[in-house]
Amino acid sequence: MSNVTVFDHPLIQHKLTIIRQKNVGTKEFREIVDEIASLMAYEVTRDLPMTDITIETPVQETTQKTLAGKKLAIVPILRAGLGMVDGIMKLIPAARIGHIGMYRDEETLEPVEYFVKLPEDIDQREVLLVDPMLATGGSADMAIDALKKRGAKKIKLITLVSAPEGVEAVQKAHPDVEIFTASIDDHLNADGYIVPGLGDAGDRLFGTH
Q: Is it true that the peptide bond before 204 is cis, omega within 30 degrees of 0?
């Protein structure tokens, strides 16, 4: 699938296998999601632009590489997306944070938007949109629409586990958005859950039911 990156790094795959297990508690689940987000952020930011600057080491003056001042924003889809923010912030502490609130109507399985708060200069920032699950693609599609309506031009969607149906839906609606995921699973079940998946990421992160 074009515009989709599936991370096959052994550490990411190992940690994802751990949190898939139903007997993993909230604390461990939260910590490992944080770790996976950091590992994924390392690769997602591989194309950040660089520039040369002159510095002085203890030995001599030298020209070296530094980030070219690219502005970034991390935008979690509430509430499960919050579990990935700190892991990314460890690598990009200067990034601004936005929030997009969505919940899934349990009868229609359709997303409902209830909150959007973004940095004022979102149109000047590359946006890392994060949500552990890409299931039907409805929430991601609506969140990307919300970002674009407010001027965002370059958006990357970062998820832990994706369903083929969700990937296809986002690609069809937003072919300009890159998708980064640790796994494309088998399918969605009748309840709209990813199979084999890892259950409800929000409930597992926050200890709710």
A: no
pLDDT digits (tens, 9 = 90+) for 131-149: 999 999 989 999 999 999 9
Q: What token pair was written down for 65?
A: 């590489």
- Max CA pair span of the chain: 67
Cα–Cα dist 73/50, whole Å: 18
The total of other beta-carbon atoms located within 10 Å of residue 110's CB is 12
pTM: 0.91
CA distance 121 to 40: 25
Q: For residue 53, which amino acid is it? A: I
Question: Contact 158/128 with Cβ under 8 angstroms?
Answer: yes
The radius of gyration of the chain from alpha carbons, rounded to an integer in Å, stands at: 18
- Alpha carbon distance 113, 129 (integer Å): 15
Which residue type, as a one-letter code, is found at position 189? N
Centre a 10 Å sphere on the Cβ of residue 3 and count the other Cβ atoms it contains: 15
147 phi, psi to nearest 5 deg: -65, -45
Which residues are the active-site residues? 104, 108, 200, 203
CB 126 within 8 A of CB 148: no
What digits encode the pLDDT tens for the residues 15-50? Answer: 999 999 999 999 999 999 999 999 999 989 988 889
pLDDT tier at 2, thresholds 50, 70, 90: low
Query: For 1-5, 69-73, 133-137, 181-185, which range has the lowest pLDDT when averaged over its residues?
Result: 1-5
